[in-house]
């Protein structure tokens, strides 16, 4: 058993981050092992909890994402649409499609350099204010 799975503060912190999706951030993700080994719930149960809140869930296996052992991405398509409109020029210059499914698939697949022109958009999706 993962020692973090016994730490309720860690579990609460993870849940708090996901409570913000659809409120202060458009996207969040967790490695699959965090869901099963730390939160100690099945990926299906976690996904059901999130979709009941009106969020979308997409699971990527380890071959589809840059996250080791796969990841679950959770997102609010309305918030993504709003942010996409704000960053449309950069998104189109990058050659991306301006829809939530494409954006989630693309950011799940690759890590982007901090200097990449798309990073302000990605950071805003995650409400990432860290430098």
List keywords for this structure.
three-stranded antiparallel β-sheet; 131 residues; 7 helices; mainly alpha; globular
Mind explaining what this structure looks like?
There is one protein chain. This protein is mainly alpha-helical and 131 residues long. It has one domain. It has helices at residues 8-19, 32-38, 43-51, 77-86, 88-93, 100-109, 119-125; strands spanning 27-31, 56-60, 71-75. The protein has a 3-stranded antiparallel beta sheet with strand order 1-3-2, sandwiched between helices. The N and C termini lie far apart (34 Å).
- What Rg do the Cα atoms give? 15 Å
Helical segment tally?
7
Structural class: mainly alpha
* Widest sheet, order of strands: 1-3-2
Inertia-based shape: globular
Query: Major β-sheet, in short?
Result: 3 strands, antiparallel
Helix amount, in percent? 40-55%
Oligomer: single chain
Query: How many individual domains?
Result: 1
* Percent of residues in beta strands: 5-15%
Distance between the termini: 34 Å
The total of beta strands comes to 3
Indicate the low-confidence ranges by residue numbers: none
Strand and helix order: HEHHEEHHHH
Q: What's the rounded overall pLDDT mean? A: 91
Sequence-ordered SSE layout with sheet pairings:
Layout: H1 8-19, E1 27-31, H2 32-38, H3 43-51, E2 56-60, E3 71-75, H4 77-86, H5 88-93, H6 100-109, H7 119-125
Antiparallel strand pairs: 1-3, 2-3
Quick structural overview:
By secondary structure, this protein is mostly helical.
